[in-house]
Amino acid sequence: MTRKRLTWTSAVTVILLSTLSSLGALPASVATTSNSDNEGEISHHLQKGNNALATGDISTAIQSYETCLSLDSNHRYCNINLASALVDANESDDDESIKKERMSKAISLLRHVLTLYPKDGDAAFNLALLLQDTSNSEETTRESAKLYQIAVEAMDMNPEEEDNWDALANMAAAKQELREFSGPYGARRSYERAIVLLEGTVQEYNTYIDQMINRDDSEKVEYDHEGYQHAQNQVNSINAYLSKLYYGYGTILSELSPSECLELMTEESLLMDTKDGIDEASAKIVCETNAVNAMRMAVDLDLNNVVAEHMLAAMTGGDNAERDGYNGKERASNEFVSALFDDFADSFDEKLGALGYQVPKLIGEAAYDLLGISGGEPFQSVLDAGCGTGLAGRFLRPLVTGPLVGVDLSKKMLEQAAECTMVKGCGLIAEDSTERDDLEEEKEEDERSKKPLYDKLVSSDLETVTLTELVSELSEDAIAGFDLIVAADVFVYIGNLQEILLNFAKLSNGSDSKASYLIFSCERIEDTKAAPTGWKLQSSGRYAHSKSYVTSVAEKAGFDLIRYDEIVPRMEKGEEVQGHLFVFAIGGAIDEDNVHYEVTMTTTDEL
């Protein structure tokens, strides 16, 4: 069996995906099935398909495997390899309907194999990859985790089989998302096994390189420049994967509760010394210490792993930051934000929906309330700062008659937002079309489905983006600024808000005679925990801000607070995240009756 190297697709939960494995040339005793009358012909078509697949002749491979299955529809390896070939065919096809049909057939073939051979590790591994490629739901993650475990158990049952670290790593990531940390096939143990396997491979390459360069003549391997370059490239590539594995391992250990840490102390560990974890308090210290060490390893192994770098800063507070009267780095790097949300883009709406994410809706409601303050007239222009996939845009579009502009660092998130209209995308649950019988209504919906939700989308840094970048080519009439700027959960990746609020003031359309508005959310922290800066980089990797800090820095930028709400932005690990929502005005005459209007905390149960 051969496996192609996998790629990482999420920096948040660290889910791994890969191209499918296919089975190469097999001994006749293995390649045959119960259909002995056609044994030779079946083997011929299987081998012909394998040869074609190996050389990239996908159409011949598909035809050969299909011929094999016409002779024996239950042939294990023809089913598995046909599924692999169908997926490979999709890589060079732009027809989405055909690609979807192939994917469905591939999944059906692999399910058929597992019906006949429930412990087939190759079919299980491939099916898990395909399922994760088609859905990010918890149900899919749970099924995939079980399938990866079948693949790992098959590996464990056959010591002669190649050790497939990718199955271990994928299982670890899936079980981490499901918070299944403990046990022989839990996330923690699976990460450890994958790490040990890969480190062993790195050691083999390093030994080969060392023998080629550094040993004495009696032990030295003849120098081969091409071989040296290949070995060095392999080491670099594997170290990049190891970096991600250590990142996943470190995040698990940092997330564990004291009781979960104590439970892990009773299990054998390949990477941790657990003898000091004798009670919940000491066990938590062991977890935290090893989490930091793992994150440092992730950074050392791959200096381009900006997600690990950011999380290391969050875990350590910038090493001696708090001792020195400082709460950590002032903002997440652009590279971190781009990497985080590029990887998160495909599953963003679904994941946040499962967490009861409320901020876009709350911002939309606050913006609607502002229309009453401003005389009931719609906004002429709105900037969705850090728009992501467009979740807030869904609530803003009906409130603006002019341009709605979105800006974000993540180009993949912007690609998702670009697909949004008033009737699809951006978190909208599709309406049952059978309930819409009126032809005029259907025609109106068709027109709305063609018009993009956003008039312009820009990839840029919010601290430095200019009005010209945002509004050029939008309108023949000059746009002096935005009537409303919103930022939904943007500031959780920025500690010091001074620069971004100063830039928002420049982008606003406020004047002596007319006010413009700013709405944004933050995670909330008390002044005593945020001292001395007023903000803090938390162990979650997100920033929290105190109310007094936010109002102070906003006022220095020229904004006046007109509304403040304590909110619950979302749930995390079953607990409510503490947040707050701010509404500011800049310019114009502020109605004193609306200044500092405070609302009691909004919980997810109330929405």
Automatic annotation (TrEMBL):
Xref: CDD domains: AdoMet_MTases
Keyword terms, alphabetized: Signal
Keyword Signal among record annotations: yes
InterPro entries: Methyltransf_12, SAM-dependent_MTases_sf, TPR-like_helical_dom_sf
Superkingdom per UniProt: Eukaryota
Gene3D superfamilies referenced in this protein's UniProt entry, alphabetically: Tetratricopeptide repeat domain, Vaccinia Virus protein VP39
Annotated ranges, domain Methyltransferase type: 383-507
Xref: Pfam families: Methyltransf_12
Position of the signal peptide: 1-24
Protein's UniProt keywords contain Cell membrane: no
Name of the protein described by the UniProt record: Methyltransferase type 12 domain-containing protein
Species whose genome carries this gene: Discostella pseudostelligera
